[in-house]
Structure formats: structure tokens, C-alpha cells
Specification:
Layout: E1 2-7, H1 14-19, E2 27-31, E3 34-43, E4 48-56, H2 58-62, H3 85-94, H4 96-99, H5 107-110, E5 114-124, H6 128-136, E6 142-149, E7 159-171, H7 173-188, H8 197-206, H9 217-224, H10 229-238, H11 241-244, H12 258-273, E8 278-282, H13 288-295, E9 301-306, H14 309-319, E10 332-336, E11 351-355, H15 366-377, E12 381-387, H16 414-428, E13 430-437, E14 448-455
Parallel strand pairs: 8-9, 8-11, 9-10, 11-12
Antiparallel strand pairs: 1-4, 1-5, 2-3, 3-4, 5-7, 6-7, 12-14, 13-14
The structure holds S-adenosyl-L-homocysteine.
S-adenosyl-L-homocysteine (SAH) is lined by residues 242, 283-285, 288, 306-308, 311, 338-340, 355-357, 360-361.
Amino acid sequence: MLLTLTTTHRPATDLGYLLHKHPERLQTFPLSFGEAFVFYPEATEERCTAALLLGVDPVGLVRPKSGGVGMNHQYVNDRPYTVSSFLSVALAQVFGTALAGHCKARPDLVSQPLPLEAGIAVLPSQGGEPLIRRLFEPLGYRVAITGAALDDEFPAWGESPYYTVSLSATVPLQQLLSHLYVLVPVLDNDKHYYVGEDEVAKLLRHGEGWLDRHPERELIAWRYLKRSRRLVTEALTRLAPEDAADDDPPSLNARIPPLHEQRLKAVVETLKNHGVHRVLDLGCGEGRLLQQLLRDPAFTEIVGLDVSHIALEHARDRLHLDRLPSRLQGKMTLLHGSLTYRDRRLEGFDGAALVEVIEHLDPARLPAFERVVFEFARPQVVVLTTPNAEYNRLFPALAAGCMRHSDHRFEWTRQQFAAWAQAVADRFGYAVEIQGLGPEDIDAGAPSQMGVFIQHGR
Ligand code: SAH
């Protein structure tokens, strides 16, 4: 199997610095499943191509004791001839520095978008040509694909699942390598090694800056993590699901989805404008809002609550709770609990935030939730945000009638949200005002909506 990386950046031989491989040398790297060779079929000022050729030892693969990887396949399989998770392992070992985005000799090149073309022979795709396009085109690649007949002599047998693919884009080399690292095994839909907890970390590390906005992120996580429901859920939760479909079409350089930032900023401002000091973040997730509240001296006591243990663990990591400076220690508490059961720990606060939480609740549990928040916890100010379903049709990546995230139980139009909010305010003695969050569309309104509830008599 062969991967070529070509650039027409001037001088094109800069590719050698970025890959840490000298264009004039042929280099060989021993791997657990065979050997990798790196060489440059062309290296001029105008055009430079680096080739990574993998020689997989099919006999070694089935003989683990001799240093192979113990694959359960027979000797005769397609592995020596196709690109697969072996390529990802080889990329990490042979081009590890470039994949991690380091380049001591020319640090300026690392983040620089370069005209690049990757050529892959032979790429297996479980999902055919359409899936290759669905995975790479949203990342900005021009994709050229040549299929191969199953048998040249018998065209009636149809196409094989193997393709020769060329991907071109102007991107930093590290991004191209990360895309290949993650997406090649996804296309192949197989991995030659056991997939455990650290694969989630790998997926998130190599997916940073693009996976959270990829329209196929669920399929990618599903296949990359070998269909482990637990790992997939963890990965998708950590990918900040709320932002995933929120913004513009995925673009290569977009890192932080701006809508969620705007939302959090609006929530913090609103809480401050209403003089809130002791605050609850209900359904705090990974703690993005908590992080902002913690930074702001206006908030003297902060409590985050979530029903998900995993989310709370990530919040704890994000906030570095064990290493906080002493002036912040004691200011923040994380609680495990559910918003559909009365919880005395939530009583007596000035304010509460519920950012993109309500749509995760089963509609049948809403009456319980309403009492837990507005009757029992009863903070003086409640700031609650939820998607505006009318805006969904403006998201190019979202199919008609779909919701923004698979865990959403419902999404309300502006009218539905207003009706619910007014009824709750009336029932529990609050006044409510609603505003849009994010760029307004004349017809569809803003992508997100925020209700601010103020207790009567405050
Ligand atoms: N507020 C966070 C997370 C939103 S995702 C943010 O804006 O980033 C929705 C969160 O609600 C998830 O973390 C989920 O675990 C939590 N959640 C869902 N049902 C819940 C319940 N019954 N009680 C408490 N939290 C719940």
C-alpha cells in the first residue's frame, strides 16, 4: 500500500522539513506488522512528493509470538495490499512529529496552509465512493476517485470495494495527516488492534478542530471506536454535542464554535446584570459555563450539577479543581444528581443557568423538572436556553426534519418555547422575557433562544 504526499508550495522541498525526512534519502522503519519505507519520487523547487510505502508481512500477522500483532485472519487477506489502520499506525510512527504539529527547523510552516495532494492506493471503502466523498468533501478536499473492477476479465462482477483516491486541498500538513489518520480506518471499518479507552483520547486528539463540526461525526466515532456504545457515547459527549450542528458549514480552520461562546457570554452577562452571586449551573455538562463563572469575581459560590458521571469527570479535569489557587478553593462544587427529582442541595441560590439542557429531558418528565427548578430550588433568577427549531433548515449539514443532536428529545419553535415559558412563569410566580441568541434570520429567527425568569417581588 502506498501513500503519496505532494506539494506545489515554493520551495516544494520544504515538505522534507515538515515530514522530518530528507528528500535525498531512502529510509526504512521496522514496524510490528512489517516495514515502512519513505522516499521522494520527485523533489524540485516546484513540486515535491514524499511516498510512504508499507510492506505488511501477512505471515507475521497471524503469528503473534514472532512479533506480529496476532490478527485472527488467515494468511490470505487483503491487508498487505490495502490501506487500513496499519497506515494510521505507520503515520503515527514514521511521521509522528508532523502529525503532532511540530517542526523545529521551520516552525512557521506548521500552521501554514499548503497546497497538498494525497494519493492513496489502494483504499478500501465500506460505503463505496459516496462515503469517501461524505467523509472528505466537508473538510474542503477536492476528491478524485478511480474504482477498480472486482476482476478485469469479468466486468459483470461489478466494482470492488477498493479505490484509488486523490485528495487535494490547501491545508496545513498536520491537518491532512490527522484527517487520514482518523478517516482511513473509518472507511475500512476495521481495526487490527483492540480498541479501548485510550482510543477515545486518540480520536479526540486527532479530531481536534474538525471532528466536532463534521456532519458524519457520529458515523466516524461509531466506526473508529469499533461500535463500542460506551466509548462512542463518551466521545460524542466530549465533542461538545451542543455545538455540533449549530453554526456554519464545517470549515477546516474553525476551532471554537462561536454560537456556544455567544450563548455562554449572554448567560453570564444576564446573571451579572441581575446581581446574581451564588449560582447553580444545572446540567453543567463538561463545565464550560462553570469555567467562565469561576473566572469572574462577581460569582462567590458556584454549583454545577449533572446526571452524567462522565460529564462531571470531564468538568473536574477542565476546571483543574484539585489544583485551584486557594482564593478559588471552596468556591466551586460539583454535584451528581438529576433535575427530575427534588434536591435540597439546590435550595437558596440567587440564580440558576440551564444551558441547552431542557431538550435532553423526556417530555413526560417536564412537569417534574419544572417543580424541581421553579418550586423547590426556586432561585430568584433562572436563565434557560434551548435551540430554536425553526432555524434548523438553515443548517446545511442537517437533513430536513432532523434535530441538532441525537440525544435531543424535542426542539421547540419560538412560539412553543414562549408558550411553555409563560405557563411556567405564571404557575410558579415568575416574570419571563425571551430573546434570541446568535445571528437572526428574518423568517427563522435566531439559532438559539434564551428565557430569563425573574421571581415576583424580587
Ligand atoms: N450546559 C452544558 C451541557 C449541555 S448538554 C453546556 O451548555 O455545555 C446537556 C446536559 O444535560 C448533559 O450534560 C446531560 O448529562 C445533562 N442532563 C440531561 N438530563 C439531565 C437530568 N435529568 N438531570 C441533570 N442533568 C441532565
